[in-house]
Design a protein that fits this description.
The complex is a heterodimer. By secondary structure, chain A is an all-alpha fold. Helices cover 74% and strands 0% of the residues of chain A. Chain A is built from 13 helices and no strands. The model of chain B has no long low-confidence stretch (mean pLDDT 90). Classes of the chains: A mainly alpha, B alpha+beta. The interface between A and B is medium-sized, with 20 and 27 residues.
């Protein structure tokens, strides 16, 4: 017994530095945010002080139609972009898993969008959808300048534009995760299936897809959580507009907190995002935890 | 049931030549072993037979039919893989059924075939498990079962026992042999393990560097190796191979190594050689005898370097002026390192190779 105890305390000892870092940079800010969200604070009006108001900000959030709309936009963005990224990522993974001359270059090239800082990529996509000199207009209307559209001024197009930008930027990351999954599937299985008479499509459906499930779930988890935190794309490309058409919840929280100076309400919105992601993570880990641990046996 | 004929198979990967001019025949119902060190091209050859790989030139005929243009599943073959290649997400039953389902076989026939294979391989109680819940030996059986249910004309085995421990390997070897006897179907078996080759093969094809070095029965391969490669590759401990020069004198030969010479009472069939030519002298360890048992006999004297007692026998390593010679003696033979001993070999048991080929000779 004593030995186990000393082993345990040694374990605590060596994880201590890491735990301290987590506590200082993740736990403390989260707690502090929570405390802030229980107060009414206006940055521009220091004379009002910062009275404790309990869950008033959260009650406000529940009744706020703009927040509801922002959550709707966010979920729509998450669902559409994650779906497209997984499908496209799978396609990318399947292509760069094949052996062909110059594969190394293609693999590197595929990752370029992911390596570009989001703000830069967003700026690029804003240019592409520009109403006067954007590439989108040139591709669709060619020289007919009079037909050029201000894409980002239409609610549906603006929404699709940020989805497109996100898909362009992060599909390759999903592809990379799926490539790792493809690489652990033994080549022999495909040989056996060819001898068994499975067509290319049947091999994909009966071997690749089921054996890729852990990797697919991992990619889904990463992409959902990441997409839920979307902010910079919206900030650069649309500023949430036109109207509230692309106003995702993070951007609404940012506007409330920094533009309007409502520190209490703004942090309450952030806490709501935090809790949503926390719940999502728990759900995912519960569902895929066991699958992740099952390695491919042959 | 079918025979297999390969004619002039070449295979290059890019600039690398992996197979060169492979021609061989497996008779209907024959057990043929492709044997060679890793990288000799034997697995590539098997994959070409299966249709998983396309040859650069040459033809594959199964049952008299050229299958070069046919995909693997239309060649009517079954293959057992080195790592079993069982579908991990399917049960044993589903694994066995997979190939038949792909062929749209009626389910009552599938059931019957599975039952038949399960009984033959004694895996009936494993049918509802998944591969990860099976031991290595059980997986191997399932892999064979998957081949069996197809009733193929040709069985291909790619080093099927290399992932099993020594004891299991020995028992599976016996099982495969029994299976072959019972089914009477043509089997092509790739291995780098000479014991597997010697025990299983009715015909052994020894390969090295993409070429066939010798085709023969286990007996022929062992007794009459055609070249130094086959001589050195088959047999444990390996055959003693000494390099030197050979010259023919009246009714005998003189083998000269750097520091010693042996008078051999033999006459090459091709007749005399004017000048000494480079030659390799081969003697199997078990052909070295502690006592002269017949006449004429060749005597070799050396110093004992090391003695290994293996229980049933004793391995004696001799140093003869810098060359090493291994002798396999009965366990009763007593000798100490440092002793000078004379060992004997019958001229009938000597192998001579010149220009990379066996030199036929008769004994005086």
């Amino acid at each position: 017994m004593r030995r186990i105890n000393s082993e345990q305390s040694y374990g605590w000892l060596i994880t201590c530095p890491a735990l301290l870092v987590v506590a200082a940079f993740a736990l403390y800010p989260a707690l502090e945010s929570f405390v802030l969200s229980l107060h009414r604070i206006y940055l521009g009006l220091p004379a009002l002080g910062s009275p404790f108001v309990g869950i008033e900000n959260y009650m406000l959030l529940l009744q706020d139609p703009v927040a509801r709309q922002a959550f709707g936009v966010t979920f729509g963005f998450v669902a559409l972009s994650t779906l497209l990224e997984l499908v496209l990522g799978l396609a990318i993974a399947l292509v760069i898993h094949e052996r062909f001359p110059g594969r190394g270059w293609v693999r590197a090239a595929v990752l370029i969008p992911w390596a570009i800082p989001t703000v830069v990529a967003s700026q690029m996509w804003r240019f592409i959808f520009n109403d006067q000199y954007g590439l989108a207009n040139l591709l669709v209307f060619g020289e007919h300048v009079s037909h050029y559209l201000p894409w980002l001024a239409y609610p549906e197009w603006a929404f699709l534009a940020i989805v497109l930008a996100d898909v362009w930027k992060t599909s390759s990351f999903a592809g990379l995760l799926l490539l790792a999954g493809l690489q652990v599937i033994p080549e022999e299985l495909y040989d056996a299936a060819r001898i068994d008479g499975a067509s290319t499509w049947q091999r994909f459906r009966t071997i690749t897809l089921p054996l890729l499930k852990p990797a697919l779930l991992t990619a889904l988890l990463f992409r959902t959580i990441d997409a839920f935190r979307v902010f910079d794309l919206v900030f650069v490309m649309t500023q949430g507009g036109p109207g509230d058409a692309t106003q995702v919840i993070q951007f609404y929280g940012y506007k409330t907190l920094f533009a309007e100076g409502q520190v209490g309400y703004g942090t309450a919105i952030s806490m709501a995002v935090f809790v949503t992601i926390l719940v999502l993570s728990f759900l995912y880990i519960r569902t895929i935890g066991s699958t992740l641990l099952t390695r491919v046996h042959s | 049931m079918a025979d297999l004929v390969l004619t002039g198979i070449d295979k290059t990967f890019g600039h690398q030549r992996v197979l060169q001019g492979i021609s061989l025949k497996a008779d209907d119902g024959e057990f043929v072993v492709l044997l060679g060190p890793s990288g000799c091209g034997k697995s590539t050859l098997l994959r070409i037979i299966a249709g998983l790989e396309q040859q650069t030139s040459g033809s594959v005929l199964i049952g008299g039919q050229c299958v070069d243009a046919l995909p693997p599943h239309r060649r009517d073959i079954a293959m057992v893989f080195q790592n079993y290649a069982l579908y991990p997400h399917l049960t044993v039953r589903e694994n066995l059924a997979f190939g038949l389902r792909m062929r749209k076989t009626p389910s009552d026939i599938i059931e019957a075939r599975i039952a038949e294979a399960a009984e033959l391989l004694e895996i009936a109680d494993l049918l509802d498990r998944r591969p990860k819940d099976l031991s290595g030996g059980q997986r191997q059986r399932v892999a064979m079962g998957r081949a069996l249910v197809r009733h193929p004309r040709l069985f291909l085995f790619d080093e099927p026992l290399s992932n099993l421990d020594a004891r299991l390997r020995a028992s599976m070897r016996v099982e495969i042999k029994k299976l072959h006897k019972r089914l009477g179907v043509t089997m092509i078996y790739v291995t780098h393990d000479q014991i597997e080759a010697m025990t299983l093969g009715e015909k052994i094809v020894v390969m090295d560097q993409g070429e066939i070095r010798q085709i023969g029965t286990p007996e022929e391969i062992y007794r009459q190796p055609h070249n130094p490669f086959v001589a050195g590759f088959i047999g444990t401990p390996p055959m003693n191979l000494l390099e030197g020069r050979l010259s023919v004198q009246a009714r005998k030969c003189l083998f000269e190594a750097e520091t010693f010479q042996l008078v051999l009472p033999i006459v090459p069939e091709k007749g005399g050689m004017a000048r000494p030519i480079p030659a390799i002298l081969g003697i199997r360890p078990e052909d070295l005898l502690p006592h002269p048992e017949e006449r004429p006999i060749v005597e070799i004297t050396g110093t004992v370097d090391l003695v290994e007692n293996l229980g049933a026998e004793t391995l004696v390593y001799l140093a003869i002026d810098g060359k090493r010679l291994t002798a396999r003696f009965p366990a009763t033979y007593r000798v100490q390192p440092g002793n000078t001993v004379t060992v004997y070999v019958s001229p009938h048991r000597i192998h001579l190779f010149t220009k990379g080929e066996r030199l036929p000779f008769s004994c005086e």
